[in-house]
Specification:
Layout: H1 2-12, H2 16-23, H3 27-34, H4 42-52, H5 56-59, H6 73-80, H7 85-93, H8 95-135
Length: 136
């Protein structure tokens, strides 16, 4: 398994420092995993599989072949949806603005969901009060 981790990191062209920041663990911990000094727990195995975009079976050494897709998210999106080169270029040029727009929309949705939960609690409280009055 440790050889798989080394190979994946090298294929992706990552340094321990980048991975440490992305995964929220120390550089020495990553090194320990790669050198077999520390056993990989399930939570870390999942993080690594997600980070490298591979299966848990591959991380654990159960799959023999795995390829890493080093394309950007935009390149993957463009390929999967058969975007034109111009569309892909537009997305790349406006990526920051699109991400900001999506984050703003997500924030709006989160606020609305929070308000809905507040209202659901108020409705439940009112139903409880109504039931108590009907019992008396």
């Amino acid at each position: 398994m440790n050889e798989v981790l080394k190979e994946l990191r090298q294929q992706k062209g990552c340094k321990h420092k980048e991975m440490s920041e992305a995964l929220g663990v120390s550089i020495s911990q990553l090194s320990d995993y790669e050198n077999g000094r520390k056993k990989l727990g399930m939570a870390m195995a999942i993080k690594l599989a997600d980070f490298y975009n591979v299966t848990l079976d591959y991380i654990m050494g159960r799959e023999v072949k795995q390829t890493i897709d080093n394309r950007s998210d935009i390149e993957k999106l463009a390929a999967e949806n058969k975007f034109s080169v111009d569309d892909e270029d537009f997305l790349k040029q406006n990526q920051e603005q699109l991400v900001k727009l999506l984050k703003d929309k997500q924030s709006e949705l989160d606020q609305k969901e929070a308000r809905i939960k507040e209202l659901e609690i108020q409705v439940a409280d009112l139903q409880t009060r109504l039931n108590e009055k009907n019992v008396l």
